Amino acid sequence: MMLKSPKFRYLVPLLIATAIGAASPAAAQDKVLTVAQPGDTGLDTLDPRVKLSTNHQFVYIGIYDPLVRSVGSEIQPGAAETWDISDDGRVYTFHLRDAKWSDGAPVTADNFVSAFRRMFVTSGASQIYDDIQNAAELREGKVQPEDLGVKALDDKTVQITLKNPAPYFLGLASSTFASPGRADLIAKYGDGYGASADKIATNGPFLLKSWENENELVMVKNPNYWNADAIKLDEVDVLVLPDVNTQRNLFDNGELDLYGISNPMTEEEIATYDAKGEILRYNRGGYRGITFNNFGQNDPKKAAILSDPNFRKAISWALDRQAYVDNVLGGNGEPATVQTPLGHTIYSGTTWGEVTPNVGKYHPIHADMAKSKEFMDKVLAAHGYTSVDEFPEFDLLTSQDPSNPKLFTPYALSVLTQKVGLKINLKHVTGTQYWNEFKEPALAYDMCITGWGPDFDDPYTYMGYWVSSSTDMGVTFNNAEYDKLLDDANAELDPKKRAQILVKAEALFSDIGPSVPFIDFKGVVAVQPWVKNIKTSIFGVNINYVYADIQK
Amino acid sequence: MLRYIIRRLIIAVTAMFVLATITFFLLRLVPGDPFAGPRITEVIKARLRAHYGLDQPLIDQYFIYMKHLAMGDFGYSLAKQGHSVNEIIREAFPYSLDLGLRALVFAVIMGLFFGIVSALNRGRALDSLTVILVLVGISVPSFVLGGILQYYFAVKWPILPVARYESFAHTIMPAFALSLATMANVARYMRASMLEIMTADYVKMAKAKGLNRRQIVLRHQLRNALFPVLTIMGPVVAMVLTGSFVIETIFAVPGLGRHFVLSMQNLDYTMVMGLTIFFGAFLIAMNFLIDVLYGLVDPRIRLS
Amino acid sequence: MTDAAEPIPPELFVPDPGQPVQSLSTAEPQEFWADVWRRFRGNRAAMASLSVLILLALLAIFAPILSHYSIAQTDLFNTYKRPSFVHFFGTDGLGRDVWTQVWMGARISLTVGLTAALIQMLIGVVIGCISGLYGGRVDMFLMRTVDIMIAIPFLIWVSLVVIVLKPGIVSIILAFALTQWTEIARLVRGEVLKLQNTEFVIASQSMGAGSWRLIVRHFFPNILPVVIVAVTFQITNAIFGEAFLSYIGLGIQEPLTSWGKLVAAGVREMRGNPYMLIFPAIAISLTMLALQLIGDGLRDATDPKLRQ
Which of B236, B252, B237, B254 is nearest to B96 (CA)? Predict the structure, then answer.
């Protein structure tokens, strides 16, 4: 066993203290931002092609520079100085600036091309890049990596060809999933690449200074970054703090600069910090709701009931979204009655909320038990039952994900059993097990508490995975009309016309789709008064610390 | 003496082997795959399974694992890409060890003290008071106690640090919280065995001889009362030194305790195996040590 | 009595090997238990604890029946209400009555504790008796198995069982019962070994009494006190264990609730809605304290060496 027992008990804290000391403590006037990482376990690897969680992305945004960067709601230059988009909206040509990696190697087009190609081998993120030519085919192994629509025209030019115009593509290109990679180092270190500070190269606004996996990750300003003037912080400390109460206590003591990143805050916390003017509210994207399995776990009786749109409406009308938002979340949420949260941009200067007429039409803001009964009566009649008691027992799958809205699972359960009168078997499982049961081939659920977070700022990020070819949440929903509408939307260059097509698709889906949306998230985070210029984003990494400043 | 030690050693090694085998097969009972995730596809999962050798027949996997185990290699963690189980244990264990030792020392000293005090004052108010004081510490769930301690002593009255493990002051609250359970047990056992001995014949004889109370306590009672306390120390030491999930979570100590729970939830087979064997080895080593100590001190046991 | 003039040899001050021989109670069992009860009654702390436990048990049985709220009933217009005459312990985030939840939770926590402990007792006594009585290879095999079971970390065992059997009352009880009987088994085995060498047993055997008769008439009454004390402490372990499982998310599932679940949720609301933590925490802590004091009291009352 390669275990070295430490000599003795004073040695260890001494060693730890020296390690941190050796990592040279920031001088008193240095601007150090201390934050808690969003996840509850330490980071294992910083290779964007291997791990994708919010926890990982939070660090990627600091140490990598993708082609473009999303800052607030704008797309700004990143590794690419300029870019051109062809008239048909299908070809993006990025011109890289002169920049270096942390180990001195130049940033080249190949760094991006190899990263994209590798994504299709190792990463599930590849699914959101299906707009790229030959993407789906590459994932299925029908073509070679060289056929992918991402090419290096020369050392400093990256050209991406899409199969249909996608107005949100720059947002996709700004994602941390599309950070550049170092094929040479990956070949050299294999699995170990990215697993420790000495086996990785970075090109972003911050350099990786030290990294104790389960304890703390320290980034320092990269003096050679092309935009170093815009970076005000000298150091960012990302701490592993698994307990949310501990984070709060540290925040109250002034030792943590942001609070509320990893878990939702309680009303008391929000009220307390609001009173001190320390709350930052932002548009967050993302929703939670109930998804139905049209296949009913291969039980024809269940399948018949579950795929009946009236059944879903009966449930939807029994949920009281507004009361839940007001009284359980203390106002920190929005009732979701359509698939796309209303704050997303549909085309420049206009949000989805300003365009869609579907709000409240297919799913209500307030509960109405009378209407719910009406819908359920239709279901009973259509399938030959006299009462809900005759229904088979349904499996409701849910996970212990702390980002689920507070008490949603018990609320949903109580509505389904007490108000609608169903027999429910609750399967409340751990995160890993949840994904095992939820996805193909298991599909081991009848109803499931699910949701989605946006990958880019456009309604398509919520609608795309319900197409028939998707293997994601929408795998049990196959509707040709819906597919056609989305294809038409993708081909449409006029943003206003595109918006209308999407409105139609949303109406169709809200009417018959196997999903009952419940709550849209509202972003809220507590910020110390000396921290300035925290940027927020509706997708990807919600809290962007890169351009923050400290003024004590 | 040597034969005694060797015999114990052989039993210990066999036990480890059986432990590893049982755990290996038991773990495969758990349904599901450690690689599942929101975007992970079957293709990626298959690739990962092949990469970690999980697609081979179970028996082959077993022999490969045992072969590596014999060389002290626990393999790579399935959940923490790019890190070996040995490395993870090696980084986390010193924290748990340090915290555990502080807690243990404090627990034993205070436990012995409380046990003696309450035994010597049996039936009187001091006895009841001491007993209740010690028991209150273990009647409140540790995550409640930890949360309350942290709030009151680090935020309300900022005397101690909130969390993390950076200096002596940081170790005080977590070590205290961790020590309570052991302290209560030690106090209990000490009290019980002191009471037993207090009524033993040889003590009556010592009193008759004219030794005063203090001499009796120090010379006779303590030494003999310690034996039962030693017996329970084996498992207790192992448990304390491999970390407490709750304390490490609340006080953000990057020790081994958290891994015990998280590795199971992540279905990280190799990590679970590694932790089980590590813990088992520790436990068996502790018990072995105590057996040897017993054998050294009491010749009757070694000859049996 | 030795001559007072002779020097007393130092060997007389060395303690007896092993445990002093437990004096078999040769009196009728009823008298023995009457003695025990008398001594227990004299222990004020233990008696107070007993009354507290009885009170809690009565509340657990009757309070939910008498309350007009049910734990599954949510009321989104009455969330987070402070304690009042309408809701003695206030309401939680979904408007559920906390008083009802605490006493329904009591049912679950106490049931889990008792059942797990009783099953452990059954398994432990059987294995301990077999091990002690048959000795030899059987004993060695069983004790080695116990050693290995102890070597698997508790957290991993319990997580394993609960994940495989899906979280719920049954899996939690089984998780504890199947893994924590080892202490009782060892205890029982120890007692059986001691009893085997008493003159009374040898005499019975020489008179022709079979093993079963021995076990029932002589072993059980003498093992029982030790076992009961151990079981009392196992109940506390099980209750705490369930609380811990709730804390890590593997505990009792909706719509049922337990003290552990209430306390785990209450910790998060500690600063904003402290009543959600205080009431269930007091309930569980009082129960734990009471059980411990009762266990200590029972041990004092049944241990013949401590008779004064």
Answer: B254
